[in-house]
Amino acid sequence: MAVELDPPPSVAELAERTATFVRDVVVPVEERSGGVAPDDAVRRDLQAAARAAGVFAPHVSAEFGGHGLDMRDRAVVFEEAGWSLFGPLACNIAAPDEGNMHLLEAVATAEQKERYLRPLAAGDLRSCFAMTEPAPGAGSDPAALITRAERVPGGWRIDGRKWFTTGADGAGFAICMARTSGAPGDRGGATMFLVDAANPGMRVLRHIETLDESLSGGHAEVAFDDCRVRADDVLGAVDEGYRYAQVRLDPARLTHCMRWLGLARRAQHIAVRRAAERELFGSTLADLGMAQAMIADNEIDIAASRGLIRQACWELDRGQPAAQSAAMAKVFTAEAVWRVVDRSLQLCGALGVSGDVLLGRFLREVRPFRIYDGPSETHRWAIAKRVVKAARR
């Protein structure tokens, strides 16, 4: 069956409105701040403007105030939101909140949806997803999970350390992955818990200094010490956390790709405008062969990334296994976006290195994506394993 890539007219119109909103309203705010994460008051102002423009929370079902877009339609709209580092934040589709909304809508009970999903979808609070741990705990290999939850009267006690918990500082709640059976290295035995930020057993220890600085709440190290939660704070079923993680992770990898693809297009736009205007050696930069090659390679990387993303989205929407296509899209897009931003900066020369354009900030922001959501090397390993397994059948 052919993969349908063209969005329906209503989605194309939403994407166009999103593009206009991001360029007219969000980009000026981003440029004033140099692309560094804004404070919560600015977040709320941007989200109020997005709501007024009708481009807020497009991925969430209408029941919770969104447009109910499927993955293929999200690809079109999220790419436009990603034109600015703050576009996803304004539209309430930034990580980790967007992935958490997807997970809550798929797994949470009705009471949990009202308590956590509804205010998150409305932008009344932010959230975080606490899975990654300092070595030797869970990272590229989630089965290395060390944080443990033990049953106690009335619920559970969670103990452990997490780090690179994006958005933890200022989040209203966390989704915490903890081991409830087995030992580190076992492929099962994890459970997800909903933990309110006011819980005295959860503490943000520090902000981790990183290359990227555009995400609200930063990347934090978080302690869970004698953290008591109720029995009904379990998200989904006990010992099924790894299965639910896949509900979140494959779509979240793709939505990351969509957003960063928008930023790659922005970098290309800046570079092409500069190349068309900059005169040297008797012609414009855009008339020189080496510059043309970089511009062309950028276009190829952007188009190829878009195709891989939409193929994986099509498979997810049809309920097909999409781990292989999502992994390929993630690896290629993460590396292609880096190449596009890097070439764009090179095309702009000294201007690209300067703070007069944000290409240097973009380069810092996109580089960690080759590590976040699974390093390229881990995905390549998994891709190859699946290919070899199929060949041995």
TrEMBL record:
Domain Acyl-CoA dehydrogenase/oxidase N-terminal: 13-124
Oxidoreductase recorded as keyword: yes
Acyl-CoA dehydrogenase/oxidase C-terminal domain ranges (all copies): 240-387
Domain Acyl-CoA oxidase/dehydrogenase middle: 128-227
Pfam families for the chain: Acyl-CoA_dh_1, Acyl-CoA_dh_M, Acyl-CoA_dh_N
Cofactor: FAD
Sorted UniProt keywords: FAD, Flavoprotein, Oxidoreductase
PANTHER family: ACYL-COA DEHYDROGENASE FAMILY MEMBER 11, MEDIUM-CHAIN SPECIFIC ACYL-COA DEHYDROGENASE, MITOCHONDRIAL-RELATED
Assembly and oligomerization: Homodimer.
Family, per entry: Belongs to the acyl-CoA dehydrogenase family.
Protein name as annotated: Acyl-CoA dehydrogenase family protein
Organism, scientific name: Pseudonocardia charpentierae
Taxonomic lineage: Bacteria, Bacillati, Actinomycetota, Actinomycetes, Pseudonocardiales
